[in-house]
Amino acid sequence: ILNLNGELSPSLSSSSALLWIYFLVAIGLALQVGAANWDIIWHGVVNVESFFTPPHTVLYSGVGLSLIATVVGIVVSIRQKTSLRNPFSIYRSIPNPLKIIVLGCLVEVFSGQFDNWWHANFGFDGLLSPPHLMLISGMLISIIGALIGTHLFSSLKKFKILSEMICYGILWMI
């Protein structure tokens, strides 16, 4: 997306770059949903009560992918604007769906810390413990942001339709 000089590649417009960003966020969320299901099975079979389990690693890799893709989308959006003199104009240059995704990712990151604390203090946690509900809320916020961002594109390219289908599927699974 960016060339060696840090400028946006002329072959990619901001809108197509953002569509890729929303697609990567959706893939990150798909990783999270799959890992959450794996985590439920893991707790039933292995019964190890630690935060540092393979399902949690995959889950937070999905959070990381979503967060990194969103940060890249924000950087691309800010670099597109030429007259960025004050912080409010920088904030306004960020598309609203990316702001929603950042909020969801931050909720997910904090839920991970909360879950670690919860495991350390209470051991076994149920399926609907407060940290898990917080994680589900963050996932829901993030996928809604990705779905809004994908839906705002006026073109009906196959890639847009595929991205929307993935978003709707993840939304249904959450």
The biggest beta sheet is recorded as: none
Helix and strand composition category: mainly alpha
Q: Mean pLDDT across all residues, rounded?
A: 81
Total strands: the figure is: 0
Please give a handful of descriptors for the protein shown.
single chain, 174 residues, mainly alpha, 6 helices, globular
Characterization of this structure:
This protein is mostly helical and 174 residues long. Helices cover 75% and strands 0% of the residues. It has 6 helices and no strands. α1 (14-45) runs antiparallel to α2 (54-80) and α1 packs antiparallel against α5 (130-151). Residues 1-12 have low confidence and may be disordered.
SSE arrangement:
Layout: H1 14-45, H2 54-80, H3 87-93, H4 96-122, H5 130-151, H6 158-173
Helix pairs in contact: 1-2, 1-5, 1-6, 2-4, 4-5, 5-6
Outline:
With about 170 residues, the protein is mainly alpha-helical. The protein has helices at about 15-45, 55-80, 85-95, 95-120, 130-150, 160-174. The protein is globular.
